[in-house]
Amino acid sequence: MRVFPFAGAMLASDDDMLPESLRGYAPVVRGIARTNAQVIIRQNGYEIYQTYVAPGAFEITDMYPTGGSGDLAVTIKEADGSEQNLIVPYASLPVLQREGRLKYSMTSGVYRAYDNSIDETPLTQATAIYGLPWGLTLYGGGQFSSKYQSVALGMGKNLGELGAVSTDIIQAWSTRQDKDKESGQSVRLRYSKDLPGLGTNVSLAGYRYATSGYWDMQEVLDTYRDDNYTPSIERRRNRGEVTISQSLGEEMGSLSLSYIREDYWNTGRTMESVGVGYNNSWRGISYSMNYSYNRNTTDQNTGKRNDEDHLFALSISVPLGEWLPKPVYANYSLNSSKNGSTSNNLGLSGTLLERNNLSWSVQEGYTSQGRGESGSVNADWRATYAELTGGYSHDKYSHRLNYALRGGALVHENGLTLGQPFGETVALIKAPGAAGVGGE
């Protein structure tokens, strides 16, 4: 379901509250050991997990997600020297969850649009994802307001050597301002497959097909205004996307290719985009190059061209630490558009202080077509009791100063403890006389 701006409250599960070994998707590995045995799990020839188990049935549920596909080869080494060998199918998509894992989100409030003339309609949204056995994941949810209601249901499946696939459908009922009630459906299909022997990943998202009566909630609520303006809303009918990533071998970098095509119900516009990217590193120097071709047509029946553009981007980062006591990088980037401007940016970035807890960057650039010079200076200090961020930037049209103070406060039986922002689970250790001791 599409994310929308709102003012209200949200209650949701948080992966940051879990150990890293339980985040993301990994299949449950089951087996039976005849003796006290060592279990070794390999993927694509690399050992990714090892543990010891007692005689009898066992389950391994705390493997780190591997980020790709390729069946898991499980070896059970028995105490008498014999071995058992098992194969566990594995492939992944972002929607897949571990067996027994429930993720949920509940939101309630009012719609908060970018335009103050749009009504603040009360609304509620709820979503849930649950990991089942057999590599299955079920997910669904709903959005509800007086002007819009929708329900969604989907399923993802780990197909092992065949990859991973998910599909879902949304049924929506909507009433735009001064319009009759409509209903429609949106269907989505996603697929991902790794070819480990070739170093290739293929990701296909047939996202999405929507019927002519389908609207999402934000499109509907944006029509309720206290003025006479009627917004023009483009509604996507089809979207197809293919992305292929290819490793070129050791020290040769990687190549990516992408193709996207969209068309729309009410305007007849068609958008196409083709992208090629390459990135690599050599002796600590990292660099990347990207090219994209974008085309929009005003009418898919006549093929009349509206606009066409070629874009190129280059970035290089060179470490200078060989000559300096602290890590420092020199960075250069180039962005060029056939129909637009060309910008060149050169900068330095690095860290200071004993624990590298002060990061800084300086950048200066120039953009063609009369836009002129631009630059910025930024610093971030992660101190004992807070994090302080500040910066200055300028261009032809303005000068900007920004600053922020962030931190965390932990209330406990002995008082209040201040610290840096709490990104995940936090522990407080009481150690009298040990002030200033760092933790890992």
From TrEMBL:
PROSITE patterns with a match to the protein in the record: FIMBRIAL_USHER
Protein topology in the membrane: Multi-pass membrane protein
Record localization: Cell outer membrane
Major localisation: membrane
UniProt cross-references to InterPro entries, sorted A to Z: Fimb_usher (IPR000015), Fimbrial_membr_usher_CS (IPR018030)
UniProt keyword Cell membrane present: no
Cellular component annotations (GO), alphabetically ordered: cell outer membrane
Taxonomic superkingdom: Bacteria
Record Pfam families: Usher
Gene3D superfamilies per record: 2.60.40.3110
Family under the similarity heading: Belongs to the fimbrial export usher family.
PANTHER family in alphabetical order: FIMBRIAL USHER DOMAIN-CONTAINING PROTEIN YDET-RELATED, OUTER MEMBRANE USHER PROTEIN
Name the record gives this protein: Type 1 fimbriae anchoring protein FimD
Organism, scientific name: Klebsiella michiganensis
